[in-house]
Amino acid sequence: MRLSQMLLVTLREDPAEAEIPSHKLLVRAGYIRRIGSGVYAYLPLMWRVLQKVSQIVREEMNATGAQECLLPQLQPSDLWKESGRWDTYTKAEGIMFSLIDRQDRELGLGPTHEEVITAIAREMIRSYRQLPQTLYQIQTKFRDEIRPRFGLMRGREFIMKDAYSFDADEAAMSESYQKMNQAYHNILRRCGLKFRAVDADSGAIGGSGSQEFMVLADAGEDEILYTDDGKYAANVEKAVSMPPDVEPSPFETYEKRETPGTETIEKVCKFLNCSPTNLVKNVLYQAVFDSGTTALILVHIRGDQGVNEVKLQNELVKLADHYGGKTIVSLTVPDADAQQKWAAKSLPLGYISPALSDDYIQSQKDVAPKFIRLADHTVADLQNFVTGADQSGYHVVGANWGAQFQKPSLVVDVRKATVGDRALHDPNQTLQTARGIEIGHIFQLGTKYSKALGATYTNEQGDEIPLAMGCYGVGVSRLAQSAVEQSYDKDGIIWSVAIAPYHAVVVIPNVGDAAQVAAAETLYAELNQAGVETLLDDRNERAGVKFKDSELIGIPYRVVTGKALNNGKVEVVKRATKETEEVAIAEVVSTLKHWIMDATQ
Amino acid sequence: MRLSQMLLVTLREDPAEAEIPSHKLLVRAGYIRRIGSGVYAYLPLMWRVLQKVSQIVREEMNATGAQECLLPQLQPSDLWKESGRWDTYTKAEGIMFSLIDRQDRELGLGPTHEEVITAIAREMIRSYRQLPQTLYQIQTKFRDEIRPRFGLMRGREFIMKDAYSFDADEAAMSESYQKMNQAYHNILRRCGLKFRAVDADSGAIGGSGSQEFMVLADAGEDEILYTDDGKYAANVEKAVSMPPDVEPSPFETYEKRETPGTETIEKVCKFLNCSPTNLVKNVLYQAVFDSGTTALILVHIRGDQGVNEVKLQNELVKLADHYGGKTIVSLTVPDADAQQKWAAKSLPLGYISPALSDDYIQSQKDVAPKFIRLADHTVADLQNFVTGADQSGYHVVGANWGAQFQKPSLVVDVRKATVGDRALHDPNQTLQTARGIEIGHIFQLGTKYSKALGATYTNEQGDEIPLAMGCYGVGVSRLAQSAVEQSYDKDGIIWSVAIAPYHAVVVIPNVGDAAQVAAAETLYAELNQAGVETLLDDRNERAGVKFKDSELIGIPYRVVTGKALNNGKVEVVKRATKETEEVAIAEVVSTLKHWIMDATQ
What we know:
The structure is a homodimer of 601-residue chains.
Chain A: H1 21-28, E1 32-36, E2 39-42, H2 44-63, E3 67-68, E4 74-76, H3 77-83, H4 86-92, E5 98-100, E6 106-109, H5 114-124, E7 133-142, E8 157-167, H6 170-190, E9 195-199, E10 209-216, E11 222-226, E12 233-235, E13 255-258, H7 265-272, E14 280-289, E15 294-302, H8 309-319, E16 328-332, H9 336-344, H10 358-363, E17 370-376, H11 377-380, E18 385-388, E19 394-399, E20 411-412, E21 432-446, H12 448-453, E22 456-458, E23 464-466, E24 468-475, H13 476-486, E25 488-489, E26 492-493, E27 504-507, H14 514-529, E28 534-537, H15 543-553, E29 557-560, E30 569-574, E31 580-584, H16 588-599
Parallel strand pairs in A: 3-7, 15-17, 17-20, 27-28, 27-29
Antiparallel strand pairs in A: 1-2, 4-6, 5-6, 7-8, 8-24, 9-10, 10-21, 11-12, 11-21, 13-19, 14-15, 14-16, 18-19, 21-24, 22-23, 25-26, 29-30, 30-31
Helix pairs in contact in A: 1-13, 2-6, 2-13
């Protein structure tokens, strides 16, 4: 393509709408334009990047034996009602756009396709002889994000590859999952990204296990905890670790102490001269189940540890069927506002005891008729501990479960792992932290959707068995932007060769110079002929403008038909390193072909 | 791909939902599955066909210098309000799905992209130096069809290629249009389709001229009129022709005659012993302008001719600004119901005169305050004609404009051209008729959208000039199905080689025969290696089932590793003709490569 004929408009100024470097650069370099909140046009350069990423994804999917298809974006509400997700997706979380057609039927705009693909499998897969099957598609998806931002990172319309596997049983499902896991590693490696695969929470998709693929970047919205030996990495939402050891308790006998002005852990430890590891902290939440039931939640956790609310939410979901529901629709963090309300109800905040007073529980019956008590593992075996006395300005010391306080019946992991913790697999490894952008997520769904929709197959014995499913997503447009977030400098984008919109740009410093033009035209034709995707900057602009644009756009190799022509050479500049070398005109094609081959192996 | 591993389910029975052959075949052969009304899943075979068609479209677009991009499907209502189409598209015609997001903003789901692309051009194109530009995308689009049917032919979600050109003036726009016209011819030829490019009505898109590309098929929803010399073809909605000659009027003097029971042209001609060409027929309509104004419309047309309501609608739109609007939102055909209502208001139906009585016009003021009178060219010069007397059971004969009736001031073409009419370009050519499926439509838009949205550029003289636009659509998914509608037999689909999902299928008649399996596996590998896209039917099924499936699916070449193996040969069957020949195993690859090259030139 000739730049003189291309719709390319680069901007000098950062766009006001953009917060993070990759977003600014994609707008400035003419890759994307905002059309509405969280909605972007992919301009020709961006479209080429997206096609490159899609093609890598496609090749790796096909290599696993997965078959490409395309499912509808308009999804009948019936299917989502069968899976039980319609209300959660359109109302409670509200992330699915919904609309009414001219026949007054409700439709959703697909944010994901478990329901549709399971309905297809229900019709088409009948026998064990048809298994395994994996289908995938590369498609624009929709989410009515609460706060669309960061350009393509958190848009309301974005491109995803989603794949779904169908297997006879959990063991076979696990094999399909492992194949996809490998394919995802291949995709990210081929795209030239620094990344980590991490253990992840399965969220609203559900299922028994999942991994996220995180592109490492400072602007990432996710925190990753990992060990240097490469054996452990997890999203902080899911991460586990060994808590620090407990220091010996200085209190050997039970006693109630006046501890004025010690609402925080720090203050009470200082006042009592003990370690936070000697404390049992009692934290309150309010949870609303989808059945409508509201419960007051009391969590016991060691004084030096924090509650991981994603883990807590998952533990509560497990209890949902006791409360006539399937999930919880809100978990209220005890923020300042809530605390004030609670204080008004005479709760001694900062001094709550593990045995929350019956008075208080009773006083909450109108708003939270149910009461659930959970203990984190960190306090299960704690002895002679310090904790609140249920009276403002008082703590108890030397307390023990089974003595002063009832032993908790529900002991679970709701603890937040943090940087510096010792790893479970090896106490010599401590957790490191990094920021990441989630660009992929793979799930072992099991039979959640096949049971809900009745997607079964007949096994060799003639029994009807629900299909074991997996689902696997890559954010194609998000991946493309995350590549920029990971690789840029003050002058612009630095694409990896594999996903750059073009491999090379031939720049004519002065279009009034016939020799420069002739050499450039020849190289431009020869390079494209040889499969080196090449732009020709034949615009009537100053050389400086052209160099700046090529750096902003981030084309890996720049060929300049300038002064060196006198020696039968051109200048070739590598974008990433800015290394410059003079290459004989006759060797430009073979040189670039070699470099490209090396860079995309 | 091995059929043993592919999700392929073929059906013996025609699906109940399908009316036309191509729809039945695509469902039976496992290409598509219905997910909801007008909404289909494209299964792996279909997806390959769609990719083939898309790639041909892409290559031909790129050859014109057009640049591929991808625009959002979610479109802010603001842009459609700027162009004045929001209400027409979401309410009056209601073909655009609309929805409300969580911030209570209105969004439309794009059925077309003039607004979005013009908004981009407005921001990006500033100077004549950037022109011309053509952008295109291949994308899923949405229409809330009143009656979705015929599978992919009239779906609510479908794949389109849409392109938009931006030029400095009408002359340059016309050049861009001609390039696209040529590209469209190339696309259809390469897809192996029999088609016609026809003059077309521009409809709701607007602009000064347009052509439709019609795939010829009996099930087509459109009627085409054309001449055998290839010089004229038009959609019947737009077609023009010479009307038959007028026969001499048998009436030389004006007279009112009693003509009892002659409400139809046929009856009055018989009664008065004259030709229908001697009659002026007066037809009533009711039109509602977007300004809210309703008008009573009286059309004069020759007795042997019919009114083309699309042409009438276009003439009325030209008058819209007199009535404070831009377009008309409904044109009521005088159906039985309306006629009864009118009869109740003492209108002598069947005997209306060109001078519609003031009494009647007055009586309609409450429902239709405006009155518009239009004459078709066929009656402009008619002399001594017969027409209604505005009294039930009476006609007048020997009437003349300027004598008994006021000469019509608006003389226009609202006549329906019909098969057998003489062509305008050559009276020796008569119009022929054919049915077609509209798969493409190209428009010279002019400045309609650029003026509405303020998309201008600065010319060499420094003046701000609105961009001259064209827009160009191909229904990719509709094209794929129309190819089936044009090419099938009792056994199934007959794909052209260029868009078949695979070129060849190697069938193992008996998977228990090691020699058959070995030969097939070798050929399967060699063919794919040589770029012949090949399936392997290695299923444990009877040979008959496999042959039937390969014919139903419509793979162009079938290679059978059967009895001929004994002579070092395989049987190769051409799907289209069922010709069978034995080919030496060593020559299969080169033979098929030659055939494919010949078929896709």
